[in-house]
Amino acid sequence: MSLLTKSKYLNGLQCPRLLWFADRKQLPEISLFDEHKFSQGHEFEEYVKRLYQEGVDLDGLRFQDNIDKTQELVKEKKTIFEAGFRVGDLFVRSDLIIPNEDGWDLYEIKSTTQSKPQHIPDLAFQKYVLEKSGLKVKKSFLIYLNKEYVKDGEINLKQLITKDEVTDQVNLIDGIEKKINIFLDILKQENPPDIHICMQCNKPYECPLKSDCIETLPEYNVLQLTNWRLYWKLLADGIKDIKDIPEGTKLTPRDQIIMESLEKSPVISKEQIKHFLESLNYPLYHFDFETFDTAVPIYDKSRPYQKIPFQYSLHIEQEDGSTEHKEFLSEGNDPRPKLLEQMRRDLEGTGDIIVYNKSFEINVMKKLAEDFPEHKEWLEQALTRIVDLAAPFRSFHYYDKSQKGSYSIKEVLPAVTGKSYEELEIGNGGDASMLYFYSHIRPKLENKEEIRKNLLQYCGLDTEGMVWIVDRLKEIVQ
Ligand code: SF4
Fold it and tell me: What is the pLDDT of residues 412-448, one digit of tens each?
């Protein structure tokens, strides 16, 4: 039988079905985006290792060699990275253990910018296995990234790395043995546990099996409602199809529109859309950034996980409908200085800057103003011109049932204009970001020129799509 590892224990805490599939290595293939997250975590661990230089690193040793070497080093009371412990069917590899006077301190390294409640059971399971192996764990710690750290020259390890003692929280976790026995039983089952989609599917992480499990739901299902408290309750009551929602159920105005759309789609509030369109100041600067981020900042004047813009597309639309397209795509290195120079010229003027989901563009621009004060004045002027094209869709002033509860541009564009992203090589911002990063910043993809062509096409469609949406809305309200 396979071993119950730390990650499987955590899978089991989230969902027995997830544990069963994870144990059989039947989870969907991980995306470039997930790979990036893992490699960022690994990179951060390497920085932590530099801070604890006395540590012996057992990473890379084979399974049994790692366990044997750990035993040897534990006897010698050494600081150990990647110490492996096996007790019966249980196995953990701890990020870092450090001997103290009469026991050991246990450290979990997380490439996050805060300690989170889900990190505690992780440490509690490790502590359980270490103590079964004969070690006395005195204290438990989380090591993570200091989100306020701003890179300025060489990475300052002491400023980058934060440590929280969580001994009390870890010691409060009980029932570990009982859970282990339940999980070991699940590993022996021939068929996956019959669990249905519910609140745990997003907690603490979005489950990798979610799209498979959602497929078992009807096309227009209660998960598409906007009131998550209601939809989890309906699911718990066995109500999956929107049309089966009992009469008299209290629905928010937006959820009423979703219900209404099943009878007649799209549902349009012409007056509200007219009001939105009449408030626009021409020319319209339809604008969209693409960004990437890294756990440990790679450029001066940047912080852990700061969104670094490397590309933008801009369609300038005049009131008569004519458009002009401008774009920027960095060649590599820190893209921000050149991007800012071109952006200043391209956005010059007074018309509204139309973005889709304004908080993203606003946050990126505010950070640019903070880190490059020589550009602060015009960026602040640009920020006052921002208008969110998502607003009428977020308010459900236009809703087509094909949007299935979403107001993302990927759903809205086809619903409103009949055009879509389907024929593009790149289908979402996450892919765009990863393809750029792994062809320009940490090159491991070979087809850089093709990637650049696809990136320009993808980002260009985002802003051209915004032009089409505005134009179509104008036709609708005429
Ligand atoms: S999507 Fe939900 S029900 Fe399905 S395996 Fe994941 S957590 Fe379990």
Answer: 999 999 988 777 677 788 889 999 999 999 999 989 9
Answer whether 94's CB lies under 8 Å from 126's CB.
yes
- Are 171 and 307 in the same domain? no
The total number of structural domains in the chain stands at 2
Domain stop point among 188, 218, 247: 188
Q: Does residue 235 form part of some domain?
A: no
Report the CATH number at residue 382. Answer: 3.30.420.10
CATH number at residue 177: 3.90.320.10
Nearest 5 degrees, angle CA 428-CA 431-CA 433?
105
**Nearest atom in ligand 1 to 207's CA:** 6
121 and 23, same structural domain? yes
Q: What is the Å distance from ligand 1's center to 8 Cα? A: 14
**Residue 198 placed within a domain:** no
Q: pTM of this prediction?
A: 0.93
Query: Do 105 and 138 meet the contact criterion of CB atoms below 8 Å apart?
Result: yes
Distance between CA atoms of residues 290 and 312, nearest Å: 6
Instruction: Report if residue 357 sits inside a domain.
Output: yes
CA-nearest residue, atom 4 of ligand 1: 213
**Count of residues for the chain?**
478
449 CB burial (10 A radius; 0-12, 13-18, 19+): exposed
Phi, psi of 102, deg, nearest 5: -125, 35
What pLDDT digit, counting tens, does each position of 333-355 carry?
A: 999 999 999 999 999 999 999 99
List of the chain residues with pLDDT < 70: 1, 424
Task: List helix spans (H) across 24-165.
Answer: 32-51, 63-75, 119-132, 157-160
Region at 195 (left for phi over 0; alpha for psi -120 to 50; beta for the rest): beta
19 lines ligand 1 (CB under 6 A): no
Do residues 325 and 469 both lie within one domain? yes
| Domain final position from 188, 212, 247 | 188
| For ligand 1, mutation pick of 10, 13, 14, 17 (most atoms within 8 Å of CB) | 17
For ligand 1, atom 3: residue with the closest CA: 197
Per the domain annotation, does 296 fall within a domain?
yes
Instruction: Look up the domain containing 411 and give its range.
Output: 273-477
